[in-house]
Amino acid sequence: MVQLIDRAIDKAGPVFIAVALLLIDMSALAYYLVVFPYSHDWSEASFFGKLSIIFIFIFTVYMVYCIHFHYYMAIKTHPGTMAEIYAKESDHLSGATISEHEVQVHEVLLDMEEYSDCPKTCHLPKPERAHHCSVCNQCIMRFDHHCPWIHNCVGHFNHRYFVLFMTYLVISAAYFVAFGWRPFVVSLDLLTSEWPYYFPRPLMAFSMILAICMGLAIGALCLWHYYLIFTAQTTVEFYNNYYDKKQCKRQGEVFINMYDFGFRENARRFFNVCEQFPWYTILYPIPIPPRGNGRVFEKCEEFYLLPKSRQREQIEMQREVQELEDDKDI
């Protein structure tokens, strides 16, 4: 039964994307054909008023573009799998010289020491923070969840785009509600008020209700993901860490999240606004890769202050959780 549901989710992915684009673009049309002309009268505006209208128009176009850009990147960017990484490494090794080949094989073997044994599902060494997706039937790097609305997993290489897509969408929904409630009220008055717009009244009313619902639902999801970002967790890791915290509490020990560098540094690492990319690039709708290769992650100082036995125990616990999930998906 679970496999049938997973297959149905996978097959319905393009339909979810089409519906999402239809609803987003319908709301954008409602704004430009109704809300914008209702709220900003160009003919009666002063010089500075016209400058303000131009600025608002550019700002809203930027927001709409950012929504579509990050949504497209979340869909098209592969979250990262070991099969993909090993294929690239194999192609690279085949074209290398003998000395380069020996060096790179050595590096691959060193990397593999960080992995657990080959799992039963993907038959490839699984790196830390990777988990198996039953819908995609692949082990995804830094796996968060499978999202049918992007017909893709949210993982290491596209998690940033997914979060920024939600961020711009929630801000835009709030902006639409703030400026669109008056034309929304007018659209409900079918008997007395005139409607001098090409956009139909029922669709304007529906767009407002949609903006409120999307803003609340996606806003809650967006806040949840920012909480995970600030605490250096994924959705899967949150539930695993919750269990580990209870186990540590029973044993009189303090749980340490080995990937937690503090909320500010966690955010910088997630959005990769560190050494290579300055902070303001987070506002640019351009492709920016995540920090690291997705196979091995830096550990915080508090983790290395733990006794060696506790460090090994925590890493082994992570591997056991991965193996349990593999057994569950078979």
UniProtKB/TrEMBL annotation:
Membrane topology: Multi-pass membrane protein
Enzyme nomenclature, EC number: 2.3.1.225
Gene Ontology MF term list: protein-cysteine S-palmitoyltransferase activity
Domain of life: Eukaryota
Record carries keyword Membrane: yes
Membrane-crossing residue ranges in chain numbering: 12-35, 47-67, 161-184, 204-229
Location relative to the cell: Membrane
Keywords noted in UniProt: Acyltransferase, Lipoprotein, Membrane, Palmitate, Transferase, Transmembrane, Transmembrane helix
Any Gene Ontology CC annotation: membrane
Catalytic activities: L-cysteinyl-[protein] + hexadecanoyl-CoA = S-hexadecanoyl-L-cysteinyl-[protein] + CoA
Residue intervals of the Palmitoyltransferase DHHC domain: 120-241
Root EC class: transferase
Lipoprotein keyword on record: yes
Chief localisation class: membrane
Record remark: domains: The DHHC domain is required for palmitoyltransferase activity.
Family statement: Belongs to the DHHC palmitoyltransferase family.
Annotated protein name in UniProt: Palmitoyltransferase
Species, as recorded: Circinella minor
Classification of source organism: Eukaryota, Fungi, Fungi incertae sedis, Mucoromycota, Mucoromycotina
